[in-house]
Amino acid sequence: SAVISQKPSRDICQRGTSLTIQCQVDSQVTMMFWYRQQPGQSLTLIATANQGSEATYESGFVIDKFPISRPNLTFSTLTVSNMSPEDSSIYLCSVVMTGEQGYNEQFFGPGTRLTVL
Amino acid sequence: LAKTTQPISMDSYEGQEVNITCSHNNIATNDYITWYQQFPSQGPRFIIQGYKTKVTNEVASLFIPADRKSSTLSLPRVSLSDTAVYYCLLRNQGGKLIFGQGTELSVKP
């Protein structure tokens, strides 16, 4: 299994500012994803973070708003740019690894709780 | 990716068996059925995965009929700590997970 840490765990930000969230994995992983979970909602996939190339964004998400870096196989960052209150959410990093039962599982980080005032 | 449909919420009492059924009529041949559990303020956690028939682990059982158009997650003898949201998802090997609404299970004393 994977140990995934995220920084910060939570933050309160002013509208118009940007926040960069870090995701660190304790082992090398090929596939890494960023999700958003708005209050009382399910998870929504933002993008796939590709190592050495531009991230692949899902419909409704764009690079200018959510730039992503993936400099190596254990680390990624997600920036929430020019924030508005609608960006208040939990942001989760996720990776695919072989689980204890021998097949690929998707593991999630603890999340970053963002509140935009 | 194929869509899954599951009840929005369920109530149960401690010690009961809970069965959550998920419909996935358009499941593809290379899709696996996987279930996740999410507690408040935590990321989702893998519970169980299967392709067909029955799978059992220390936490739950997963029943999948021959046509694979539905699946049932069975939680034996639930406790208060099983109160969580349960997600049914389809994934192919190495693929990304797309989450549906999930089932909010409330276990009462």
Question: How many helical elements of chain B?
Answer: 0
Largest interface: A-B, 24 and 21 residues
> What share of residues of chain A is helical?
under 10%
**Model regions low in confidence, pLDDT < 50 over at least 5 residues of chain A:** none
Total of helices of chain A: 0
- Residues in β-strands, percent of chain A: over 45%
Kindly provide the radius of gyration of chain B, computed on alpha-carbon positions and rounded to a whole number of angstroms: 13 Å
Q: Could you give the count of β-strands of chain A?
A: 11
Q: What would you call the shape of chain A?
A: globular
What's the count of strands of chain B?
9
Characterize the quaternary organization of these chains.
heterodimer
- Uncertain stretches of chain B: none
Mean pLDDT of chain B: 92
- Residues in helices of chain B, as a percent range: under 10%
* Biggest sheet architecture of chain B: 5 strands, mixed
